[in-house]
Amino acid sequence: MAEDSKRPKGIFRKEALDHQRIGGRPQGDVLRLSPDWMGWTYRLLLYSFAVFVLFLCFGRMNEYAAGPAVVRCKSKTEVTCVASGTVQEVAVVPGERVQAGQLLLRLDDEEQIAAVQRVEQDLEVELAACLRDPLDETARRSAASLRSQLLYVRQMLAARQLTAPAAGVVRDVRIRPGQPVSPGQLLVTLSGLDSGLTLIVMLPGYSRPQLASGQRGRFEIEGYAHTYQPVTLSKIADELVGPAEARRYLGPDIADAISVSGSVVLAEAALEEESFTVDGQEYVYADGMQGEVQVRVRSLPIVLNLIPGLRDLWGGGGRGLSE
Length: 323
Prior knowledge:
alpha+beta; 4-stranded antiparallel beta sheet; 8 helices; 31% helix
């Protein structure tokens, strides 16, 4: 009771009254809100929310099947070596047009040329003997044997000179003068004069049911980032294959450079042009160029990707959702 009697009367402290009496500034004021900007802000938020909802419902998200691809000639002839030796002359360069029977390269043939000349000389001697004495059976048998030998050594000489099996364009030359070669080794690659280019595409195996001939995609060439070329799927395999089989299909010349994992479906895609343009500069495709092909396989509204449970209500179990 004594303490209560010592307290000053009133609801304000003495210090607060002194501060007010000597002219202290007020520490705050009543919050005043402008009705105009509050109304515009409310409408803006409302419209933004409506646009966002419409975007979720009508905006679509595309799903792509992507995989490595290699540029290949449609018709290609590989000229291989048929005899061991050393390359003596290379008569063509990549991009050169050649005619059927035109010389491509020549192996060292001094030994074969000498053998042909020796047999020809021996044959002339025997033929002369036959002319002097037509009844000389020994000379006639020797001449017949030398004719067979001459045919054989000429064939051996011809095997040292590789010629174009048909008219075409030289796509690749794998050897140089002075290089030793062995039977079966790839030397020169030719393509037909009217042969176009195609893409060998390896798409993920799970995308096979969603792929069909005529689907369009885009080809991003390795080394030319964000440079996309339009392509169209022309052929699609029915079965899936593993990485080893996919590399075998590509061939030994390029298989080691392709990275494939898991099962893939092999497809072919047609290039619309035989050249592409980057930064205003036109370049020609080369056999073996690599890149990535992307094919759109599905397109769904954004809201269904955010809330998968709506798919049953929207499209009946997800059927008919794609474009």
